[in-house]
Amino acid sequence: MAGSDARSDWEERVGRRTAQAAAAGPRALPPPEELSVEEGAGQVTVRWRRVPGAMGYLVHRAPGPDGPFDPIDHAGRDLLAVPGPVYCDTTGRPGERAWYAVATLVSAEGAPGELSEPVEATPGTEAAAPISAVVRADREAARLDQVWHLIGSEHVSQLLYEERTGGYPIGEDFAEALRLARFELGAERVRAHAILHDELRVYREEDGEAVYDFSGIERVYDRLLETGLYPVVELSFMPRDLASDPDASVFEYRGIISPPHDWDRWGELCGRLAAHLVERYGIEEVARWGFEIWNEANLEVFWSGTQDEYFRLYDVAARAIKDVDERLLVGGPSSAAAGWIVDFLDFVVDSGSPLDFVTTHTYGNMPLDVREPLDVRGLDDVEIWWTEWGASPTHNNELSDLVWGAPYVLHGMKSVQGRAEALAYWVVSDHFEELGRPSALLHGGFGLLTVGNLRKPRWWALVLAEQLGTRLVELELDGDAAGALVDGWATGKADGSVDVLLWNGTLNQRQASGDPLLGREVRLRVEGLGGGRYDARLARIDDSHSNLFRDWRRDGGWPSADEWEELRSRDSLDEEGLGTLDARSGAVETTIALPMPGVARLRLSPS
Predict the structure, then answer these.
(1) Are 502 and 486 a contacting pair, CB within 8 Å?
(2) pLDDT for the residue 24
(3) With b meaning 16 or more CB within 10 Å and e meaning fewer, what string describes 108-146?
(4) Reading across the β-sheet that carries 70-71, which strands appear in turn?
(5) Were 94 and a residue from 5, 125, 211, 346 both cysteine, which residue would form a disulfide, CB within 3.0 to 4.6 Å?
(6) 21 confidence band (pLDDT: 50, 70, 90)
(7) Which residues pair with 88 in a beta bridge?
(8) Whether residue 483 is found in the same domain as residue 428
């Protein structure tokens, strides 16, 4: 299935849901209480109190108090539900009155509960007053969880490829992308598809007998470990000789999406692979990795079986891996759009199937609160790994190259603090061939890095997050959409330096190219300094700074040798010195312009 055929097949099937077992359905939850709205320039911020047991919320808007109320669609092309308890709506028309109400969700695919009592608000038409930001550098707040240390990738067997894309050898260029992720983003693990794909000749049947060959996986993982990263082993796709329907496939490289024709042999394959990896790399190493069973079985495009068959696939694989060594980590359901979580957890509880981490995905939105359904089932020791999350679920989307993604990434990483162990941005590199290899430098690829490893704005956002360290100090934001449209982190370092990272971004993808009415000015005061003088430097990501799209047009094809050299000379974080600030009173003040979309990092270093 090549080229346009693979794309047509994908577009036709990607929205269809896999057959799901009939169930009574989870109980409904009441609507949230204490709903309030804050009006501002071009936006309305809606806040409410969390409902115990809620996985998410649907924010509705209507032209009048009696409706009709429709869920707000910010064009994310995936889930409309949000984790709460705050939502910044920029989809309304400035100056036009609206009414807001919120419904509670027990599961992502479940019917929402009743709407809350509506509240009225009107987005403003005038420029916003400055936002106040106060940092108290002498007051430790919490630890910053570096959840971006798990990253996503297309199949890592690309490390072995010698063909070229854009003039670059795929294997070498892809390996360099992974090394950059390790050293600039602090990445530790990488999750990717297709380690059981037939290109690695892992499994075949001869005269009715199973034959195993893990040498191809060895070559891939040896090369991956050399980059400083280790894998999350996603057990997919089904080897042809083991598939009950070998013609059921997805993508141009034909990943087979069928259940096995022999469940015992599926378990044996998973167990033998786990045992081989432990033998080759050692249990202390492999116990860090994690085995994720399949990918997005709740979509027909990725699983030709039923929900019950997926649960069986998971159970057989998880038990086989645990039989090798209890320390090996297993997880699922690796679902699209946060689906099947509640059903899967009920299956785990009822069957006693092993589970160390829950995995799921979402795009164009903030991750839902998966911790709630775990806690109510007594699974509070199970970790949460979002193994796919990104700006858009669609291939070749210009959005992936725009500055809009920089504040989006930071909003997401902050939103899961304390309620997930990992949030893997999908994906690290534009070396990506689900529907064919890249056709141009800026083609709307999923990658944080281009072919040739030029850094996109989303990459720079994660660089700034990584450079913060982990010791958060108090940051208080107040003003128009503070803590919603505009948010931030502040950290203190052992050398007395302070970093303040601020960002301004909306979920509304229709405003991805920016909206002047949503720009903000931040008046920043940093208190609790040690006195003396501080060198100040400001790093920025916006349309004019740290923006590859500024330097290369979308229809520009591939650069020439001279153009590559010019692009590389500009491939750096835009940062400027602001001089020396006097902190003899223990505080400094400055003002930072923060366009939407935009990110700014102020660094104060004792001079």
Answers:
(1) yes
(2) 41
(3) bbbebbebbebbebebbeeebeebebbbbbeeeeeebbb
(4) 70-71, 56-62, 98-105, 119-121
(5) 125
(6) low
(7) 45
(8) no
Residue 233 pLDDT > 90, yes or no? yes
Structural domain boundaries enclosing 334: 147-467
- Residues 199 and 99 occupy one common structural domain: no
Euclidean distance between CA atoms 73 and 61, whole angstroms: 10
Determine, yes or no, domain membership for 285.
yes
Q: Are residues 176 and 213 in the same domain?
A: yes
Contact in structure between 262 and 241 (CB atoms under 8 Å): no
242: domain CATH number? Answer: 3.20.20.80
Question: Of 417, 452, 467, at which residue does a domain stop?
Answer: 467
Can you give 397-423 as a three-state secondary structure string? CHHHHCCCHHHHHHHHHHHCCCCCCEE
Three-state DSSP class for residue 324: helix
Residues 410 and 320 in one domain: yes
* Cα(176)–Cα(164) distance, integer angstroms: 14
Q: Which of 467, 489, 506 is at the close of a domain? A: 467
In angstroms, the CA 124 to CA 517 distance is 9
Mark whether 590 and 536 lie in a shared domain.
yes
User: Judging by DSSP bridges, how do beta strands 168-169 and 164-165 pair with one another?
Assistant: antiparallel
Which amino acid is residue 528, in one-letter code? G
At 1 the pLDDT is 46
Domain assignment of residue 4, yes or no: no
What is the distance in angstroms between the CA of the first residue and the CA of the last residue of the chain?
62
pLDDT-derived band at 13 (thresholds 50, 70, 90) equals low
Q: Is 59 exposed, middle or buried (0-12, 13-18, 19+ CB in 10 A)?
A: buried
Whole-Å CA distances, 357 to 39, 284, 354:
40, 18, 10
Asked whether residue 366 is domain-assigned, the answer is: yes
Identify the CATH number of the domain in which residue 473 sits: 2.60.40.1500
Strands in 598-606's sheet, in edge-to-edge order, are 574-582, 533-541, 598-606, 498-504, 486-492, 471-478, 131-143, 520-527, 588-594
- Mean local confidence (pLDDT), 33-59: 96
- Mean pLDDT score of the chain: 94
Digit-coded pLDDT (tens) for 102-123: 999 999 998 999 999 999 999 9
Torsion of CA 78, 80, 86, 90, to 10 degrees: 90
- Report yes or no on 1 lying in a domain: no
Q: What's 46's domain CATH number?
A: 2.60.40.10
| Predicted local confidence at residue 26, as pLDDT | 53
Three-state secondary structure call for residue 562: helix
Q: From the CA atom positions of the chain, what is the Rg in Å?
A: 24
pLDDT tens digits, 364-412: 999 999 999 999 999 999 999 999 999 999 988 899 999 999 999 999 9
Whether pLDDT at 14 is above 90: no
Cα torsion 443, 449, 451, 453: sign: positive
Tokens of 367: 């991750």
Tell me: do 333 and 450 sit in the same domain. yes
**Is residue 303 domain-shared with residue 417, that is, in the same domain?**
yes
Alpha-carbon span 117 to 106, nearest angstrom: 19
Q: How many domains does the chain have?
A: 3
Q: In terms of domains, do 439 and 476 share one?
A: no
Model confidence at 149: pLDDT above 60: yes
